[in-house]
Amino acid sequence: MTDVPAGWKARPCPICGKPAAYAERPFCSQRCRLLDLGRWVDGSYAVPVVEDDDDDAWETIHDGGTDE
Ligand SMILES: [Zn+2]
């Protein structure tokens, strides 16, 4: 068993919502930790925030072969 400090409360895993494991906090397991890492790498967390100096990238996304 992992020593869990008194007062530590398991928060919901940001991936699956299960109570987090202290050893893997804030995730419930190493699996969810890796899934979260994968999301970052995969760009799934890349919320399409349009910045003033990022118009080119934005147009590239929206110009994906959908010509009328
Ligand atoms: Zn989880």
Explain this structure.
- The protein is mostly helical.
- The protein starts with 29 loop residues before the first helix and ends in a 6-residue tail after the last helix.
- The protein has a domain of 44 residues: Erythroid Transcription Factor GATA-1, subunit A (Erythroid Transcription Factor GATA-1, Chain A, 2-Layer Sandwich), CATH 3.30.50.
- The protein is elongated.
- The model has no long low-confidence stretch (mean pLDDT 79).
- It is 31% helix and 0% strand.
- The longest helix is centred in the middle third of the chain and has 13 residues.
- Bound molecules: zinc ion.
What portion of residues is helical? 25-40%
List SSEs in N-to-C order. HH
Question: Beta-strand percentage?
Answer: under 5%
Ends distance: 61 Å
Q: Which structural category do the helix and sheet elements fall into? A: mainly alpha
The main pleated sheet reads as: none
Bound molecules: zinc ion
CATH superfamily of the domain at 11-54: Erythroid Transcription Factor GATA-1, subunit A
Number of helices: 2
Rough shape?
elongated
Radius of gyration, rounded?
19 Å
Q: Ranges with pLDDT <50 over ≥5 residues?
A: none
* Architecture (CATH level 2) name of the domain at 11-54: 2-Layer Sandwich
Q: Average pLDDT across residues? A: 79
Number of strands: 0
Instruction: Fill in the CATH topology of the domain at 11-54.
Output: Erythroid Transcription Factor GATA-1, Chain A
At the first level of CATH, the class of the domain at 11-54 is: Alpha Beta
Question: What is this structure's SSE topology?
Answer:
Blueprint: H1 30-42, H2 55-62
Residues 13, 15-16, 18, 27-29, 32 line the site of zinc ion.
